[in-house]
User: What shape does this take?
Amino acid sequence: MRVDLLTEPVDGLAELLAAVAAFDQVLVTGLLRPHPAQAAGLAELADAVAGSPLADRVAEAAEKAAAGAAGEEHFVALAAARTALLGAAHDALAARAAEAVGRTVGPAPDFSPGEPQAANLSAAARSWLCELGRAGWQGIDHELVSGAAQIVSAMLPDSGLRRLAVLLDGFAAELAASCPGATLEHIPLRRWADLWSRALLLTQPGATGPAPTGSATGRLLPLGVDLQEHATAAQAQVHAVLEPADGSPSRLVRASVAVPKPDTVVGAGVWQLLRPHLSLLAALGEGRSMEITDLPITDEGDLIWNDAQARAGEPADPFATARVALAAAQLPPTAPLDRHPVRIAIPLLLEGYGTEADGDAVAFTLAGMGVPSAEGRVRIAVDTERIPSAGPLTPAAVAASTACIGLLRWDAGEFTVQPLAVETTVRKKTVAVHSGAWAGGTIDKLGAKGEKAATEAVAVLRERAGRLLRK
Assistant: This one.
């Protein structure tokens, strides 16, 4: 590994992100009556794509928007320019990360436009998003935000529009919780601009086509699970190495499951909701491989899971997999519309590092090549905030570790490591601690307590739901 590459600046990245930030600031007060500062932000975005095929359209859109005369096509052009810039940032950062970990990336999939969807619903969504752009985040109110509800309700039954509908539903819920915008003390500029831009592009004809898929047969060796929780939903994404049965090169793949959840189900209890939908979680918790047969897989390495096409295999230790098979596994490419720095999540194994800890803040220090310091060490921050409470892994265990399986990410201007599992020494013995250790069930006192609490909470909610239905 060349970990020193992770701390070296990427040419042009700072200027690119500055242009994105300038446009994001434009959306704070909206484009109904633009101010001179907003015109400058729009011009900076247009200048950033001046050498691209978008140049003419974005220049016109920036001029119209600065005059307060932007139409829907102009808002779409601005969203496309912002998305293209972040896509370029993704490509540069992903290439740097792949070089640092010594991994190759699979060939990029061809983009195939989907079938045009209901034009009236897409137009309605686009109109609502443009009204948001004119009002700005400080101008949102409940009347404006509620305009998405009817559009979402009409879209949800259509499978081709469901991706956009779910995005609009979540976005509108965030905005509604922040109304009125005039009283907001903090605005998540990057996040809301991301959601706004992505939604606008998804309203374009053919943008929401089905992902191209093939089939996968072979042995699946789990590395770890990335668990994400919100008050009303949870998602588990298992990262694994796939060894195809036909002898072709191994590749990194993902298998995901997302479920709604009551806000009373927290900690280890969330596995009860996820486990029935993905048998891979049980295999991960038991330290086993899985044999899959003709399981659909997208060009981006996402397995479309079906328990009927998978069975538990032989024991497979994730650290053994990481040491033996991870380096040769090919990285999956990223779909064109998904190119964004937040999508970078590269599985890696780190060993031989030192640790720095200050409370829950942890960093690894590793030997690097070409580092102009006396010690020749590179400091990489550890994103302990991503460690879920639904497992035995803790910041303290990470700080005391000697080896780590993690995801290399990029956030807030630097590469970080999200730990999925660590090896540490307990009573002179090396033990592994996994964030997904309780995914398949546990007899651990803390995990069992969380499972019991979740069982009781779900039982109470089911009883109440049954009572309401009977009434």
Summary: The two ends are 64 Å apart (CA to CA). Residues 370-374 have pLDDT under 50 and may be disordered. The CA atoms of residues 180 and 398 lie 41 Å apart.
